[in-house]
Each structure stands twice: as structure tokens, then as C-alpha cells.
Amino acid sequence: QVHLVESGGGSVQAGDSLRLSCAGSGRIFSNYPIGWFRQAPGKEREFVAAINWSGSNTAFADSAKDRFTISRDNAKNTVYLQLNSLKAEDTAVYYCAATTSGRTTSGPHWYDIWGQGTQVTVSS
Questions:
Q1: Contact 88, 122 (CB under 8 A)
Q2: What is the Cα–Cα distance from 20 to 95, expressed in whole angstroms?
Q3: d(CA 108, CA 95)
Q4: Is the pLDDT of residue 38 over 80?
Q5: Which of 91, 98, 88, 95 is nearest to 118 (CA)?
Q6: Cβ(112)–Cβ(98) under 8 Å?
Q7: Rg, Å, the chain Cα set
């Protein structure tokens, strides 16, 4: 069983950057595509970015495409989400999730292992 723990959130000003980390435990973490999602108060959880098992394939939501990057270091069992040029509308709890389906996908129903989330607050 893989367990995921997010870290790196915080309170920043608009235009700042943050790097979120998703640390996985379990010997087969590197087999799984990982996705990042976020949920703002009163809103549904939405897809942000995803990366395949090797890091060779990534996918982004339109809102993230020009400002965020996703990467992974399987030797460290960690996936990173770099958030640049942050805006107030990026304020949310950010979750990472693993899918055993093998798909690098934006659909949250494909993800079966979720972390507890990390809060990102951006002040304008």
C-alpha cells in the first residue's frame, strides 16, 4: 500500500512561488502516475497537473499550463508541483493522488490513493 503526504504549502503574496512536494511511502511508488488536484472553499475538487510513472509524460489544466510545472524523483519517492506567478484564485487545499490504473489522467475518479492535502493561500 502506498501512502502519500503533501508538504510545502503556505501563505504568500500574489506573484510569489511555492514548491509543493508529494512524498510516497511504499516500495512501488515509482510505478504509479501521480496527479495534483485542488479544492477551494465552496468549490469542487479540480485537476491541476499529472505525471506518468517515469516523468516523460505530463498533463496540465488550462489554468496551470503556463505557470506550474510537475516533476518527479523516483529515487526519493517524491513528486513536485512548482507553482509560479501565484494568483489569489490559486488559493485552495492542494492534494496529490496516485492511480493504479496506469493512466496519466485528469479524472479524479481514476485516482485511488490520496494524501491529506496542503493549504496554499495567496493574498492579492
A1: yes
A2: 10
A3: 11
A4: yes
A5: 95
A6: yes
A7: 13
